Amino acid sequence: MQHLENIEKLFTKNFVENPLVESFEGGMIHLPTGKIVACDPVLTNDMKEFNIHFPTGDFPVLIHKERESNCVAYVEIVFGSEEIKEWKLATTEDQHVADLKKEEIFGYPVESGMGSFMDVETQDDLNQLEQKLFHRKGAEFMGIYEEFFHVHFFDENGAIDQFALLKPDEEKSGNILAFETGYGEGFYASYIGFGVDNQPLKLISEFIEIGS
């Protein structure tokens, strides 16, 4: 799988060393259970969590853009600085890499132009927020993107950022890392880097494949 080879070259070190990529700190994501969901939070907010459970707590996020287009190419969560020994395609329940044909991937569909990482507990908070807003606003409810996400990405002057950390429930510590996905709509895979004791050290979502 060529994607895995490129991911290994780009992200096995603790920094990305590629002139085609520009990296930015994206803040800290809080994971109360360590069960992570990757999805388009507008359309696939019932996506299953990965079958690998990650550490709980606060972890740094890195946003990697393709320099030429200024589009988000990769989003990364870092769980540790130990040496990565192996990369694997991230899968959810009932997904088995052995079932894939050549060049096939497991991943998540994006139709809103936005993807996300979040804990399953935060995913539930987002679903509850959507229901609350719908019941409160009724016919005036414009959808969860307009009601919750839009203001963090656009203002009256246009686009203001390409990623944001959002809390669907201000009384809880869990947050959503939402981000633009490459050139927009598509089907995108995630990859996990494992250390010597098979502990997950990095989680990467890929939107634009950048070779070495």
Summary, kept brief:
By secondary structure, the protein is α+β, with helices and mostly antiparallel strands. The chain is 18% helix and 35% strand.
Task: Give the secondary structure arrangement, pairings included.
Blueprint: H1 2-11, E1 21-31, E2 36-39, E3 57-66, E4 71-78, E5 86-89, E6 108-110, E7 114-119, H2 120-137, H3 144-153, E8 154-155, E9 158-159, E10 163-166, E11 176-180, E12 186-188, E13 190-194, E14 200-206
Task: Describe it.
The protein is α+β, with helices and mostly antiparallel strands and about 210 residues long. The chain has 3 helices and 14 strands. The protein starts with a helix and ends in a 6-residue tail after the last strand.
